[in-house]
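Quick start: read one record
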Amino acid sequence: MTVVMDYQKITDLLPHRYPFLLVDRVTELEKKQRIVGYKNVSANEPFFGGHFPKHPIMPGVLILESLAQLAGLLGLDAIGKEDAKNTVYYFAGADGVRFKKPVIPGDRLEMEVRYLNAVSY
Protein backbone atom coordinates (compact mmCIF):
# COMPACT_ATOMS: atom_id res chain seq x y z
CA MET A 1 0.00 0.00 0.00
CA THR A 2 1.41 3.36 -1.01
CA VAL A 3 1.45 6.11 1.62
CA VAL A 4 0.68 9.45 0.01
CA MET A 5 0.50 11.34 3.32
CA ASP A 6 1.97 10.15 6.57
CA TYR A 7 1.51 11.67 10.03
CA GLN A 8 3.96 14.52 9.34
CA LYS A 9 2.31 15.57 6.08
CA ILE A 10 -1.18 15.28 7.61
CA THR A 11 -0.23 17.48 10.58
CA ASP A 12 1.44 19.97 8.25
CA LEU A 13 -2.01 20.60 6.75
CA LEU A 14 -4.49 19.91 9.58
CA PRO A 15 -4.49 21.74 12.91
CA HIS A 16 -5.86 18.66 14.75
CA ARG A 17 -3.68 16.78 17.23
CA TYR A 18 -4.09 13.84 19.60
CA PRO A 19 -6.65 12.84 20.72
CA PHE A 20 -8.68 14.54 18.00
CA LEU A 21 -6.62 13.79 14.90
CA LEU A 22 -8.70 11.04 13.30
CA VAL A 23 -6.79 10.30 10.07
CA ASP A 24 -3.68 8.11 10.27
CA ARG A 25 -2.72 7.81 6.60
CA VAL A 26 -3.71 8.93 3.13
CA THR A 27 -3.21 6.17 0.57
CA GLU A 28 -4.63 7.77 -2.59
CA LEU A 29 -4.97 11.36 -3.70
CA GLU A 30 -6.25 12.72 -7.00
CA LYS A 31 -5.78 16.47 -6.69
CA LYS A 32 -9.14 18.31 -6.51
CA GLN A 33 -10.95 15.01 -7.22
CA ARG A 34 -10.78 12.40 -4.46
CA ILE A 35 -8.84 11.19 -1.47
CA VAL A 36 -8.63 7.81 0.30
CA GLY A 37 -7.32 7.31 3.80
CA TYR A 38 -7.80 5.41 7.02
CA LYS A 39 -7.90 5.56 10.79
CA ASN A 40 -6.64 2.57 12.77
CA VAL A 41 -9.12 2.13 15.58
CA SER A 42 -7.36 1.01 18.75
CA ALA A 43 -8.90 -0.28 21.97
CA ASN A 44 -6.96 2.53 23.68
CA GLU A 45 -9.02 5.30 22.04
CA PRO A 46 -10.23 7.65 24.79
CA PHE A 47 -13.89 7.49 23.69
CA PHE A 48 -14.17 3.72 24.16
CA GLY A 49 -14.05 4.11 27.95
CA GLY A 50 -17.54 5.56 27.93
CA HIS A 51 -19.06 4.51 24.60
CA PHE A 52 -19.92 1.75 25.59
CA PRO A 53 -17.68 0.04 28.18
CA LYS A 54 -19.10 -3.49 27.69
CA HIS A 55 -19.67 -3.13 23.95
CA PRO A 56 -17.26 -0.45 22.66
CA ILE A 57 -18.19 1.24 19.38
CA MET A 58 -16.80 4.36 17.75
CA PRO A 59 -19.33 7.20 18.04
CA GLY A 60 -20.95 8.12 14.72
CA VAL A 61 -20.08 11.79 15.20
CA LEU A 62 -16.39 10.81 15.34
CA ILE A 63 -16.74 8.75 12.18
CA LEU A 64 -18.17 11.86 10.52
CA GLU A 65 -15.35 13.95 11.99
CA SER A 66 -12.83 11.50 10.49
CA LEU A 67 -14.44 11.99 7.08
CA ALA A 68 -14.50 15.76 7.57
CA GLN A 69 -10.77 15.76 8.35
CA LEU A 70 -10.08 13.68 5.26
CA ALA A 71 -12.15 16.12 3.19
CA GLY A 72 -10.17 18.96 4.75
CA LEU A 73 -6.95 17.30 3.60
CA LEU A 74 -8.33 17.13 0.05
CA GLY A 75 -9.16 20.84 0.07
CA LEU A 76 -6.02 21.99 1.87
CA ASP A 77 -3.80 19.94 -0.42
CA ALA A 78 -5.43 21.65 -3.40
CA ILE A 79 -4.42 25.11 -2.17
CA GLY A 80 -0.91 24.16 -1.04
CA LYS A 81 0.91 24.00 2.29
CA GLU A 82 1.66 27.72 2.62
CA ASP A 83 -1.89 28.88 1.90
CA ALA A 84 -3.25 26.08 4.09
CA LYS A 85 -1.50 27.65 7.11
CA ASN A 86 -3.84 30.66 6.81
CA THR A 87 -7.01 28.71 5.99
CA VAL A 88 -9.57 27.29 8.36
CA TYR A 89 -11.90 24.54 7.14
CA TYR A 90 -15.18 23.99 8.94
CA PHE A 91 -17.43 20.96 8.80
CA ALA A 92 -20.76 22.46 7.78
CA GLY A 93 -23.04 19.44 7.67
CA ALA A 94 -23.92 16.08 6.23
CA ASP A 95 -27.13 14.93 4.57
CA GLY A 96 -28.50 11.40 4.41
CA VAL A 97 -25.85 9.83 6.63
CA ARG A 98 -26.30 6.14 7.46
CA PHE A 99 -24.01 3.79 9.30
CA LYS A 100 -24.04 0.24 7.96
CA LYS A 101 -22.12 -1.45 10.78
CA PRO A 102 -20.37 -0.44 13.98
CA VAL A 103 -16.69 0.47 14.08
CA ILE A 104 -15.05 -1.43 16.92
CA PRO A 105 -11.55 -1.75 18.43
CA GLY A 106 -9.18 -3.42 15.99
CA ASP A 107 -10.96 -2.12 12.89
CA ARG A 108 -9.40 0.03 10.21
CA LEU A 109 -11.86 2.75 9.30
CA GLU A 110 -11.26 3.11 5.56
CA MET A 111 -12.65 6.29 4.05
CA GLU A 112 -13.02 7.92 0.65
CA VAL A 113 -14.06 11.49 -0.06
CA ARG A 114 -14.92 12.80 -3.50
CA TYR A 115 -15.07 16.44 -4.53
CA LEU A 116 -18.48 17.16 -6.08
CA ASN A 117 -18.77 20.94 -6.46
CA ALA A 118 -17.83 24.20 -4.79
CA VAL A 119 -20.16 26.44 -2.88
CA SER A 120 -19.15 30.08 -2.47
CA TYR A 121 -20.41 32.37 0.24
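The first helix runs from residue 7 to 13.
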